[in-house]
Amino acid sequence: MVDEPMAQPKTLLIVDDSPENITILKGVLNDLYRIRPAIHGRAAMKAVLIEPMPELILLDVMMPEMDGYEVCRQLKADPRTREIPVIFITGLSDDANELLGLELGAVDYITKPIRPAIVRARVQAQLALREAAKIIESQNLLLRDEREMIESIVLRMRAADHFSTQQVRHLYHPVEQTAGDLLLSAFAPDGRQLVLLGDFTGHGLPAAIGGPLVAYIFQSMIARGESGATLFREINNQLHARLPVGIFFAATLVEVNADRRQVMILNAAMPECPLIHPSAPPRGVASRFHPLGVSFMAELPTMIAPLTVQAGEKIYLYTDGIIEAISGAEEMFGQERLQEILIRQLAVGEPLETILTRLEAFCGRACYEDDIALIEINI
To answer: How confident is the model at residue 369 (pLDDT cuts 50, 70, 90)?
Structure first.
């Protein structure tokens, strides 16, 4: 059996222009740590870079040429040394000097005469904190790597989502790569078009994780020729069964008949869905359902009657990131302002990106904080 190598003692740098003080501190700490002395500030700036670099620095304040405060300033200004904890040891005991030392980045301030037990205890405490900080940093790096891997998987799965651009235009501006908004469009074998716009709670990875499941249900059920109502219920029940409490899915599902004369609009906790025609007043379909995934849906949503539509009419689905954007004056963008833009765009044929331009002008320096998504369905 091979013996494991013993851990090497941690290195401490002691900076003091008095050899007697260094000798005293060595006597207090020598049995636990490897001591590296420096008798003035300039020597300390060189000694700190010698490998192995010290885990902690005990620093006198009153020294010629470069005092301890200046040494601390330079240590904290250098990326190589700024994380090394500094404890001032000094005969200056007034509050102003102690406050200055702490403001410069020191972790502790010990006044002379030296009390061995106190020095040992405070050194051990700061080294334990430094070790804990290293462990936390290592764990955070591991979590970051794992998050990036999961994000990559989610993005790959979402990239496989099919979005048919026939008869639709869309605008999508996510806050994060793994956004909570989901845009889907496909045609059933019998010619019906189904379009879904959804918004998971929040944004980022937790919000995006349900997207591939919804996309799979959407694609597979449309390929089998299922109705929009059946698809709507199945998405709800699968999310209810599989997602944790607190993650739910606001969504609007539009089913356009093959002859494009009737549409079924199922709105679950999304903003009102406007239908706009050049020669008729706009109309809207408000939410009639709670967010999908909140509770089990036993029956199909048969209480929603199909709407008759006419050629030239457009249906708009959008998430609340647009209408809830806030200006610097704390004013909401709002549904009315969005609808005015949509009516004007319909008249002059502007691109949907005009909405983003208007939104950025409205928000000014106050950047919008939620995902922006909008779909236009042409009849």
So the answer is: low
Contact assessment for residue 320 and residue 252, using Cβ atoms and an 8 Å cutoff: no
What are the tens digits of pLDDT across the range 279-291?
A: 889 999 999 999 9
Tell me which residue of 87, 125, 85, 132 sits closest to 108, measured CA to CA: 87
Does pLDDT of 53 surpass 80? Answer: yes
Q: Which domains does the chain have, with CATH numbers?
A: 11-136 (3.40.50.2300), 160-378 (3.60.40.10)
Cα gap 144→241, rounded to integer Å: 29
Element (H, E) at 198: strand 193-200
pLDDT band at 118 (very low <50, low <70, confident <90, very high): very high
One-letter amino acid of 6: M
∠ CA 248-254-257 to the nearest 5 degrees? 150
Q: Which residues pair with 28 in a beta bridge?
A: none
Q: What length does the chain have?
A: 379
Instruction: Say how far apart CA 239 and CA 249 lie, in whole Å.
Output: 8
pLDDT digits (tens, 9 = 90+) for 225-244: 999 999 999 999 999 998 88
Structural contact between residues 243 and 293, judged by C-beta atoms closer than 8 angstroms: yes
Taking the model in full, what pTM does it have?
0.66
The answer for residues whose C-beta is within 8 angstroms of residue 253's C-beta and 6 or more apart is 194, 195, 196, 228, 231, 232, 265, 266, 268
94: which 2 tokens?
Answer: 């007034």
